[in-house]
Design a protein that fits this description.
heterotrimer; A mainly alpha (312); B mainly alpha (328); C alpha/beta (497); A: 312 residues; mainly alpha; 15 helices; 4 strands; B: 328 residues; 2 strands; globular
Chain lengths: 312, 328, 497
C-alpha cells in the first residue's frame, strides 16, 4: 500500500482530480462545456492562481503565508475608496505592489529572523491589516472601482481573457525563474533539508525571507486583478483565498519542503478549483459546502503525503 | 546531535525571579500589567468601578478563559489547536436546534470528542502536522456549523440560558463557572499524573529528547490524542457558555477565539515550544485580554481597531519566545 | 556465589554492522567492574542492551540468575538495573523529584500526585549522596555534576542491584569525584554490582576490581585488575593490523594555511592552539567525545566556543563565529566543512547527484543570477571520485553508503576549497570506497591543499594523517607524527596525560 502511495505521489493529485471533475461535468452538464462559459470561470480564479504562485514558493521552503487576505483587503480598499486622493491609477497600482512587498518583508522577517511560527505570524498580520482596513472603512466607506480597471479586466487577447493571460505568463515566468536561476536551487535545497543546505553554504534565512517577499508581491498583483473584477469595493473579499491557495498548492504536489509538482502542478490545482466551483454551483451545493471542501482537501492531501513519506 | 554539548549552568538569581527558569513560565508580567491596567481604568473612566461592570467583565472573560485552558493543554505538548473557534461555533449551532436539552448537550459532547479524536489521530497516527490538521478541521467544522445554522438565530434551551446567566444567592452563575473550570483545569494540568506526563512529553519535544518520555514508559500517543479531545471539549464548554449568553446559535461567534486563545496562553508565559507553563499564567493572560477589551470599549475604541491591536499583541508576545525551527 | 549479571553470546546488528558480536562474561556482586575498549568497541551498545534501550539480536542475559529481556529502560530499572547515561535522560523542564518518579508517580487522594511525599523521598536519596538540593529544583537549573548525581540517586532510590556508570566523572571536579567514590564504596559494601565505563586510567586502577576489554564488538578478556598493568591493559585494547589501504604520507609541507589560536571550548578548559600547513593531513585523535568535534565546529560557528582566534587566508577572525552565517563566511575563505552525519546534515537525499555536488558552487553565487550548470565540474568530480551511478540525475538517497560519501566529499572538491575540515571521512563506507577516498584525500593534499580530519577509527587516522593531535578533555594532550603513531601510543597519551 505504501509503495503504491509512494509511486503515485510522484504525480500530483491535481491532474487526477482535474480529469475527474472534467469528466463529471461533461457527463452531467454538457451545456457548460463551451469556451465562453469556461472562460468566465477560469478568469474568476486568475487571482487565486497568481496568489498560488507565492504560496507554492513559501511552502517549498517549509513555511506558509496566510496573509494574502489582508493584502487583498487593503489594496481593494485603497483603490475603491479613493483614500489616496487624486493620484493617477498607475501610481496607486504601484503603491499596491509595494504594500504587498512590505507585508511580505514583514512576514519574512518574523519567520526567517525571529523564527515565529509562520501560521501565527501571517494570521496575526492578516488580523492586524483586516482590523485596520475595516476601521478605515467605517470612517470612509469604499466606493466604486475605477471604470478603467473594470474595462481592463474585460479585455481579451484573442479568445483568452487578459487576467488569464497575466496568470499564465506569471506562472511561466516563475517556472523559468525557479528552474533557471540560482535562487531556484536554494529553494530546492532548503525545502529538501535545511540543515544540509546550511552546511553547503546556502543562505537559508535569506532564501525564506525572499520567498515571503515574493509571496507578498504576488499577493499584491492578485489583489489588483481581484479588485478589477468587482464594480464596488468590498470588505468581505477574499478572506478564504489564502486557504484555497494552500489547498490548490497541496493538490498540485507541493507539500512542505517537497516540490514534486513544480509550478504547473499547483496551476492545475487552481484549475481544479475553477471546475470545483462550477460543479458546486451547478449542483446547488450550499456555501458551507465550500468550507468543508477546503478543509477536507487540505486534510486528505496532508494525510496522503504523510502516509506516503512515512516509510520512505 | 552526536557530539556532547556541554552547556553552561544557567544564571540562577535573576532568571528565577523573572520566572525564566521556572516551569510555570513568566506570569509576573501579565499580573503586573493587569494591576497597572486596572489602576488606569479606575482612574480614567467612570464606569469601571461598578459591580455591574465587574460581573459583566467576568461573564465576558469566561469563554476565553475556558478555551485558553483547553488550548494550554495542547500547547504544553508543543502542539496547537486552531479548530477551537469552529468548535465553539458548532456548539452554539447545535444548541439552537430543536430538541430536548439533554439530547442536544449529548450531541455537543459527541461532536467535540469526535473532532478532538480526528485531530489527535491525524497528528499521532497519520503524521499530519498539528497546525495543518487543526487548520483544516477549522474549516470542516465551520462548514458543518454553517450548514446547521446558516445565519445567527434559533433558540437555545432555557435551561442552558439559566445555567449561564442566572444567579444563586445573588452570586452570578459566571462565578461558579469560573470556580469549576479553574478547578478542572488545575486538576488536569497540575494535579494529576496526566498533567505531569503532558509536561514530560512537552519537555521532551522542546529539548529534542523525543525518546525520553517514551523510554520512561509514558504512553505519549494516547496522551496526545487525549489532549486534543480535551481541547475540543473545553472549546465546546466555552461554546455552551456563549450560547447561554446570546441565547441563539451563531456560526460566526467563534472565529476570533483560535488566535485569542493562543495569545492568552502565550501572554501567560506558556512556551509554544512545549513543556513550560502554568495554569495561573494562562488565566491571567485571558483575564488581561478581556480587561484590555473592556477598557478599549469603555474608551470608545472601534471594534475593528481592537481586533488589529489584539493581532499586534499576539505578534509581540510570540516574537519574544525563542524557537529553533524556522517556518511552519 | 551467583553473579549479578551474566552475558551469554550477546549479539547486536545495526544494519550490516555487527556492533556486538557474541559477547560473554560475568559481573559479580560487591565488585566494581570496569568496561574498556576503544571507540566503536561496542561497550556503549552492550550497556544500552543491558539498560533496556536496545534489544539484542541473539544471546541471553541473566540478572541474579533470572533470564531477562527488557522492552524499555523502565523495565530494566524495575528489574534492578540503573544506568547513568552519558546523554543524560533527565527532562530539563521537570523538577528533580518529578524526574525521579516519572512513570511511577506516587498518587494521593483524588488522583492528585503526592508531591510532598515524592519530595521527601527524593531529598532523602539526595542526602545519601551528600547533596542538599531542593527536590523541587528544575533540572535545567542544575550543573552537569549535580545532574549526574541526581541520576545516581535515582538508581539508589530505585533499589537497583546493578549500577551502570558511563563516564561518571567526565564533568566532576576533584571534590565531587571524592563524593562519588565514597558512594561507590558504599554500594560495593552493600553487595551491589557496579559497571564502570571510563577513559581515565588512574580512576580505573584506583576504584575498579575487575575489567572487561572489548575490541571491534568482540570480547577480548575479563580479568581482575590486580593482574594487569596500565600498559598491559592498553595492549589488550589495541593491536590491529594496519592494512595497505593508505597511500604514502607527505614528504614536505608548505606554508601555514590555517592557524587556530587560544581556542577555549568552555570556561574551565585549556587553550588549544595549532597550525595547519599546505600539503598536510592533520588528524584529531583520541577517544570519543573529548572535544574533537567541538573544536572543528567552532571554526565554522556551529559550536559556541568561549574565545579564540582563527587566522586563515590573510584574515584573523575572533571566535565565536555567528551560527547562521559562519559556514558561508568560511566557505568564502575557501574553508569547507564536511559534517559527519551525511544523511541528516550533509546530503540532500531526494535531490539528484548533480545537484548535491554542485550546491556549494551554487551557494557561492547570488540568487538572482542565472543558473550555471557546472556540468563539467560535476562530470569531472564524478569521474575523479569514481562515483558508481547510472547517471548524474539519480537521487543520492538511492546510492550506497560509499558512493554517498563520495558525493558529499565531491561537493567540496567541485567548489575548489583550499582547506577541508572533515568530521568522519569514511563512516559507513565499504573497504573499497575507503581506499578510494584515502587516495583522493592524499591527492588533494599533494596539490597544496590542507585537511583536518576527525575519525572514530584511530587506525584510519594513523594511516591517513601526517600529523596527529591527541585530544583529551577538551585540550591537546599530545602531538605526534603519523610515522611514529600507534594505537597504543595514542591511547597512552590520551589516558595518561
Amino acid at each position: 500500500m505504501t509503495n503504491f502511495l509512494h509511486s503515485s505521489s510522484r504525480i500530483p493529485p491535481a491532474y487526477f482530480v482535474f480529469v475527474a471533475l472534467l469528466v463529471t461535468l461533461w457527463i452531467t452538464k454538457p451545456q457548460l462545456m463551451n469556451l465562453n462559459v469556461m472562460g468566465v470561470f477560469i478568469r474568476q480564479v486568475a487571482p487565486l492562481g497568481i496568489l498560488v504562485l507565492g504560496q507554492l514558493l513559501v511552502m517549498r521552503v517549509r513555511s506558509i503565508d496566510l496573509s494574502g487576505a489582508g493584502v487583498l483587503l487593503l489594496v481593494n480598499y485603497l483603490i475603491a475608496s479613493g483614500l489616496l486622493g487624486d493620484l493617477p491609477l498607475g501610481l496607486v497600482l504601484l503603491i499596491s505592489l509595494c504594500i504587498g512587498c512590505a507585508v511580505g518583508l514583514f512576514n519574512g522577517y518574523l519567520v526567517a529572523k525571529r523564527r515565529v511560527s509562520a501560521v501565527i505570524a501571517t494570521l496575526a498580520v492578516t488580523v492586524i491589516i483586516t482590523g485596520f482596513v475595516q476601521f478605515l472603512a467605517s470612517g470612509k466607506p469604499p466606493g466604486n472601482m475605477p471604470d478603467l480597471m473594470n474595462d481592463i479586466y474585460k479585455l481579451k487577447w484573442g479568445p483568452v481573457p487578459l487576467p488569464v493571460v497575466l496568470w499564465v505568463t506569471l506562472t511561466a515566468l516563475t517556472a523559468v525563474f525557479l528552474s533557471r536561476f540560482v535562487y531556484g536551487r536554494f529553494v530546492m535545497a532548503v525545502g529538501e533539508n535545511p540543515t544540509a543546505s546550511h552546511f553547503s553554504g546556502v543562505p537559508v534565512a535569506r532564501t525564506v525571507l525572499v520567498a515571503h517577499v515574493s509571496a507578498g508581491l504576488f499577493a499584491g498583483i492578485a489583489a489588483i486583478v481581484q479588485s478589477s473584477s468587482v464594480a464596488v469595493g468590498s470588505l468581505r473579499l477574499g478572506l478564504e483565498m489564502p486557504i484555497d491557495a494552500v489547498a490548490a498548492t497541496i493538490l498540485g504536489g507541493v507539500v512542505f519542503g517537497r516540490g514534486d509538482g513544480g509550478v504547473w502542478g499547483p496551476f492545475f490545482g487552481v484549475m481544479c478549483f475553477a471546475l470545483l466551483f462550477v460543479v458546486m454551483i451547478s449542483f446547488g451545493v450550499p456555501e458551507p459546502g465550500k468550507q468543508i471542501a477546503r478543509g477536507l482537501i487540505i486534510l486528505l492531501a496532508a494525510i496522503f503525503y504523510g502516509l506516503s513519506t512515512r516509510n520512505s | 546531535m552526536t557530539y556532547t554539548h556541554i552547556p553552561s549552568p544557567p544564571n540562577k538569581s535573576w532568571g528565577r525571579w523573572l520566572g525564566r527558569n521556572s516551569r510555570q513560565g513568566n506570569w509576573w508580567a501579565p499580573l503586573l500589567i493587569i494591576l497597572i491596567t486596572v489602576v488606569i481604568l479606575l482612574v480614567t473612566t467612570d464606569d469601571f468601578a461598578t459591580s455591574q461592570n465587574a460581573s459583566n467583565l467576568l461573564a465576558q472573560a469566561m469563554p476565553l478563559i475556558i478555551v485558553a485552558i483547553g488550548q494550554m493543554i495542547v500547547v504544553v505538548l508543543a502542539g496547537m489547536d486552531l479548530s477551537v473557534g469552529s468548535v465553539m461555533s458548532l456548539t452554539t449551532a447545535i444548541l439552537a436546534l430543536d430538541g430536548s436539552p439533554v439530547v442536544l448537550i449529548l450531541l455537543v459532547i459527541l461532536a467535540a470528542a469526535s473532532i478532538g479524536l480526528v485531530n489527535g489521530f491525524a497528528i499521532v497516527r497519520l503524521n499530519v502536522h498539528p497546525i495543518i490538521a487543526t487548520l483544516s478541521m477549522q474549516f470542516i467544522v465551520l462548514g458543518i456549523a454553517q450548514l446547521l445554522r446558516p445565519v445567527a438565530g434559533g433558540f437555545v434551551p432555557d435551561i442552558v440560558v439559566t445555567v449561564v446567566t442566572g444567579s444563586v444567592l445573588g452570586i452570578p452563575a459566571a462565578v461558579f463557572w469560573a470556580v469549576f473550570v479553574v478547578a478542572l483545569g488545575w486538576k488536569l494540568l497540575h494535579g494529576s499524573r496526566f498533567g505531569l506526563h503532558l509536561f514530560a512529553i512537552g519537555g521532551g519535544a522542546a529539548s529534542g529528547q523525543t525518546d525520553t518520555a517514551h523510554n520512561f514508559g509514558l504512553k505519549d500517543h494516547r496522551n496526545i490524542v487525549l489532549a486534543y479531545v480535551l481541547s475540543a471539549l473545553f472549546a465546546a464548554l466555552a461554546g455552551v457558555f456563549i450560547a447561554g449568553r446570546i441565547a441563539s446559535g451563531d456560526p460566526g461567534v467563534g472565529s476570533q477565539f483560535a488566535l485569542d486563545s493562543i495569545t492568552a496562553v502565550a501572554i501567560g508565559g506558556t512556551q509554544l515550544s512545549g513543556g513550560v507553563g502554568g495554569l495561573h499564567g494562562t488565566i491571567l493572560g485571558a483575564v488581561l485580554m478581556s480587561l484590555l477589551a473592556n477598557g478599549m470599549n469603555l474608551a470608545g475604541l472601534s471594534a475593528f481597531l481592537q481586533g488589529a491591536i489584539k493581532g499586534a499583541i499576539l505578534l509581540l508576545v510570540v516574537g519574544l519566545q525563542s524557537r529553533k525551527k524556522m517556518g511552519l | 556465589m551467583q553473579p549479578a549479571v551474566t552475558m551469554k553470546g550477546v549479539t547486536k546488528h545495526f544494519g550490516s554492522t555487527r556492533a556486538v558480536n557474541d559477547v560473554s562474561f560475568e559481573i559479580h556482586r560487591g565488585r566494581v567492574h570496569a568496561l574498556m575498549g576503544e571507540n566503536g568497541a561496542g561497550k556503549s551498545t552492550l550497556m544500552k542492551i543491558l539498560a533496556g534501550v536496545h534489544r539484542p539480536d541473539a544471546g541471553e542475559i541473566t540478572i541474579s540468575g533470572r533470564t531477562v529481556a527488557f522492552a524499555d529502560p523502565r523495565e530494566a530499572l524495575a528489574a534492578g538495573v540503573s544506568t547513568v547515561f552519558q546523554e543524560l535522560s533527565l527532562l530539563p523542564n521537570l523538577s528533580i523529584a518529578e524526574n525521579m518518579f516519572l512513570g511511577k508517580e506516587l498518587i494521593g487522594r483524588f488522583g492528585i500526585p503526592n508531591r510532598s511525599e515524592m519530595g521527601r523521598r527524593t531529598a532523602q536519596a539526595l542526602s545519601e549522596l551528600g547533596m542538599s538540593l531542593d527536590p523541587n529544583t528544575l533540572v535545567s537549573e542544575l550543573s552537569i555534576a549535580e545532574r549526574q548525581f541526581v541520576e545516581i540517586a535515582h538508581g539508589i532510590k530505585a533499589d537497583a542491584q546493578v549500577f551502570i556508570l558511563d563516564e561518571p566523572t567526565a564533568a566532576l571536579n576533584a571534590a565531587d569525584v571524592e563524593i562519588l567514590n565514597t558512594q561507590i564504596a558504599k554500594l560495593k559494601a552493600a553487595g551491589k554490582a557496579i559497571i564502570y565505563i571510563s577513559h581515565r586510567m588512574d580512576e580505573i586502577f584506583a576504584i575498579c576490581d575487575d575489567v572487561t576489554v572489548m575490541k571491534d564488538g568482540t570480547h577480548v578478556a575479563t580479568q581482575p585488575l590486580s593482574e594487569l598493568s596500565p600498559d598491559g591493559l592498553i595492549a589488550l585494547m589495541v593491536g590491529r593490523e594496519l592494512s595497505d589501504l593508505f597511500p604514502a604520507r607527505a614528504k614536505n609541507t608548505g606554508p601555514v594555511l590555517l592557524s587556530c589560536q587560544a581556542l577555549r571550548l568552555s570556561q574551565d578548559s585549556d587553550a588549544i592552539s595549532f597550525e595547519l600547513r599546505a600539503g598536510e593531513i592533520l588528524g584529531l585523535a583520541g577517544l570519543e567525545g573529548q572535544g574533537q568535534s567541538e573544536i572543528v565546529r567552532s571554526l565554522i560557528g556551529q559550536f559556541p566556543a568561549i574565545r579564540g582566534r582563527v587566522a586563515v587566508a590573510d584574515q584573523s577572525i575572533g571566535l565565536p563565529l555567528p551560527t547562521e552565517g559562519g559556514v558561508r563566511f568560511m566557505q568564502n575563505l575557501r574553508v569547507g566543512f564536511v559534517p559527519e552525519d551525511r544523511k541528516e546534515e550533509g546530503l540532500l537525499l531526494g535531490a539528484p547527484i548533480a545537484e548535491n555536488i554542485g550546491i556549494a558552487l551554487q551557494a557561492a553565487r547570488p540568487g538572482f543570477r542565472p543558473l550555471a550548470r557546472f556540468r563539467d565540474a560535476v562530470k569531472r568530480v564524478m569521474a575523479e571520485m569514481n562515483v558508481k551511478a547510472e547517471s548524474s540525475i539519480m537521487p543520492v538517497g538511492a546510492l550506497s553508503g560509499g558512493n554517498q560519501q563520495k558525493v558529499l566529499l565531491g561537493r567540496y572538491l567541485a567548489a575548489d576549497m583550499d582547506i577541508l575540515i572533515i568530521e568522519e571521512p569514511t563512516r559507513g563506507v565499504d573497504i573499497g570506497a575507503k581506499a578510494e577516498i584515502y587516495r583522493l584525500l592524499r591527492a588533494l593534499a599533494n596539490e597544496g591543499k590542507a585537511i583536518i580530519t576527525l575519525s572514530r577509527e584511530t587506525v584510519e587516522l594513523i594511516g591517513l594523517c601526517d600529523r596527529l593531535l591527541v585530544i583529551h578533555d577538551q585540550r591537546i594532550a599530545a602531538e605526534m607524527a603519523g610515522d611514529d603513531a600507534t594505537e597504543h601510543a595514542i591511547l597512552n597519551a590520551a589516558l595518561t596525560q
